[in-house]
Specification:
By secondary structure, this protein is α/β, with parallel strands linked by helices. Helix content is about 35%, strand content about 20%. The strands form two sheets. Strands 1, 2, 3, 4, 5, 6, 7, 8 and 10 form a nine-stranded mixed β-sheet that branches. The protein is globular.
């Protein structure tokens, strides 16, 4: 009888100026990993050009710290959520990878580890999105504003067969590195929905599933920042519907696949 396949794993935390929360996020994940004797998993923080002490604080936990600054020096481009994910793909060699937001004030780290389970149990699964209840002021809050006002209407209009995920913009997800590393990734906040749409179009609806992560509390961002996020999310959704013009180009805002250009050395924090 064949023994089950053993997978290597990494949890990556893209972080920009998250000095207030990065220590607790990393330590919660490390403690959850250490509590499971049969679960090997690395933790990596991708410091996206922080102007505070995010990288230094993350390094104090013992986590691997890499920098988008090094990525941009090697490959060009600018900082952004997508570039942070790209940097993690370039720097990592494990079979399975998960991404967790660096601004989480509350999360169940043990549940986060369960995002790997569907990938290990079913070879058809390529992407696992974390679903959660948005926790605000001691109670369950409303759906995220960008999700409700931008993503859902556009997905319903342009990708109606896809619009079934409870958290389509969730920044907590796990995937096979061999799959995500061969996608053209958006530089910015369009990357999360872009990955989901690309995998849906390439592998079909049964390739994506969700895992309930329970209540999660994010840092609340002002509307001025959310407007930029909404534009980037809209661009990612619209461009994958085959619509392009001088503002929206299929590949102008994306990087070529990471697995075609990774180096043997991780990008060091600087």
């Amino acid at each position: 009888m064949n023994s089950p396949k053993t997978y290597s794993r990494t949890i990556c935390i893209p972080a920009h100026n998250e000095s207030k929360t990065i220590y607790s996020v990393v330590r919660a994940l490390q403690e959850a990993i250490d509590s499971r004797s049969d679960f090997d998993c690395d933790v990596m923080v991708v410091d996206d050009r922080s102007s505070d002490q995010t990288g230094m604080i993350a390094a104090e936990t013992g986590a691997t710290v890499v920098s988008t600054e090094s990525l941009c020096r090697k490959f060009g481009g600018s900082s952004g959520k997508g570039d942070a994910i790209y940097a993690s793909l370039v720097s990592c060699r494990t079979d399975l990878m998960a991404w967790v937001d660096g601004d989480l004030a509350q999360m169940d780290a043990e549940r986060v580890l369960h995002m790997f389970d569907p990938l290990e149990k079913d070879s058809r699964i390529q992407l696992v999105k974390g679903s959660f209840q948005r926790w605000s002021n001691g109670s369950v809050g409303e759906e995220g504003r960008v999700t409700a006002l931008t993503a859902r209407p556009l997905l319903e209009l342009l990708h109606p067969t896809f619009n079934s995920l409870s958290q389509p913009l969730s920044g907590l997800f796990a995937a096979r590195r061999s799959v995500v590393g061969n996608l053209w990734l958006d530089f910015d906040y369009g990357v999360d929905i872009g990955i989901a749409l690309d995998i849906f179009q390439m592998y079909g609806s049964k390739s994506i599933t969700e895992v309930d992560l329970g209540p999660i509390s994010h840092r609340q961002r002002p509307l001025s920042q959310l407007a930029i996020t909404a534009l980037q999310v809209a661009r990612a959704i619209v461009s994958r519907a085959g619509i392009s013009n001088s503002v929206i180009s299929d590949f102008e805002f994306r990087r070529s696949p990471a697995l075609g250009r990774f180096s043997s050395n991780a990008l060091s924090h600087s």
